[in-house]
Amino acid sequence: MVSEKLKVFIVEKNILIIEALQKIDQNKKGFLIITDSNGAVLGTLTDGDIRRAFIKGFSVDDSIASIYTKTFKYLTLEDGIPVATELFKSEYIKFLPVLDDEKRLVNIITKRQMHALLLQDIHAESDYDFLSLDEGIVDYEIFQRPWGFYKTTVMNDYFQSKVISVNPKSQLSLQPHNHREEHWIVAHGVGTVQLDQSVIEVKRGSSIFIPKGCKHRLTNTDDRESLIITEVQIGDYFGEDDITRYEDIYGRA
User: Fold this and answer.
1) What is the mean pLDDT of residues 185-196?
2) Residue-range domains of the chain with CATH
């Protein structure tokens, strides 16, 4: 029995291209799973397949029967995440149907869902509800600040990692954190790190440990190059409100 979540991905091979487009627009994932009247999976159809069909002269009133992909990769219920990881190494594979012994669809996992799964250290089998995963954690936004920008690269219950870029002659506020410690590695540039009353000069390859509660501040001392660091936070809370500013050259203290 196909779950309600999966029904939005399933169509039979005799529908029109316009109907397939409507279904793709509904599921928001860019692909469909093609089945026969008995529910056995025959192939897949992507928005790219439809685009290429239009280039060849097909119209929205034509059937998808001759444009869907009949040779496709899939997982069985016995296959685990390591098998999916290997298949997703191909740049051409963006999703994998999970089929039972009768080739009926029982699940779907996308490449982005697999990345979200791994980044959150979720241990799952092929019957896991992959559609419930938040794919947004794969592509964190870049957040601008007066001193430069930061981008989160990984965040889960155990740690958060960031890339921080400080503009020339710019400086973060003097601040402690109550719920996390931080580990910095300088990837590019030069600057100084203040730890309570101490000031340390840093350059590419320098590593700094910042304990919970330690007042700290990062400064780019160069007048041309950005200072770029990687940051790993370990603690029980990683919100941006875990901060108290004591001094700030941008008036935020």
Assistant:
1) 98
2) 4-136 (3.10.580.10), 140-235 (2.60.120.10)
